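A reminder from the course coordinator: this example appears on the midterm review sheet, so study it carefully.

Given structure:
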């Protein structure tokens, strides 16, 4: 009789442990994935930046233009996609659910970069050259040939 109660108790304990471990394994976050392409030619864009607004989450597209952002808490988000030479794209109302993958594909339009002003760079020789170990004197051409 005692052995039968012990078996029953053991079975109940294993059942409780099994139920607790299943809930511990269940996820509490979701994932966003997708593809970033050039709008005019449909080619994958490498290195496009995808950021989740208001969060510390983001990714860059790989060699195939694919990206994925893991461990995002459930909710509705706005994505910002940018890349040098392309216009910025904003995707609103991206819904993330627990243990689900949300797919968001984006096409970026080519755009010229406007610097706004001219940049002038003037080259000068440094007073001290760190790679020279001996003394050097510079003379102008006029001073050598009078």
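Designed residues:
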């Amino acid at each position: 009789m005692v052995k039968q109660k012990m078996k029953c108790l053991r079975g109940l304990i294993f059942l409780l442990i099994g139920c607790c471990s299943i809930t511990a394994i269940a996820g509490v976050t979701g994932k966003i994935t997708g593809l970033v392409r050039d709008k005019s030619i449909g080619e994958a864009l490498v290195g496009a930046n995808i950021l989740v607004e208001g969060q510390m989450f983001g990714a860059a597209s790989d060699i195939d233009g694919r990206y994925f952002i893991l461990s995002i808490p459930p909710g509705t988000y706005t994505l910002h996609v940018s890349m040098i030479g392309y216009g910025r794209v904003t995707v609103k109302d991206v819904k993330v659910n627990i243990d689900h993958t949300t797919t968001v594909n984006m096409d970026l339009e080519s755009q010229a970069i406007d610097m706004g002003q001219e940049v002038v760079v003037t080259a000068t020789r440094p007073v001290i050259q760190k790679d020279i170990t001996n003394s050097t004197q510079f003379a102008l051409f006029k001073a050598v040939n009078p």
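The chain has one domain: 28-139. DSSP finds two helices and eight strands in the chain.
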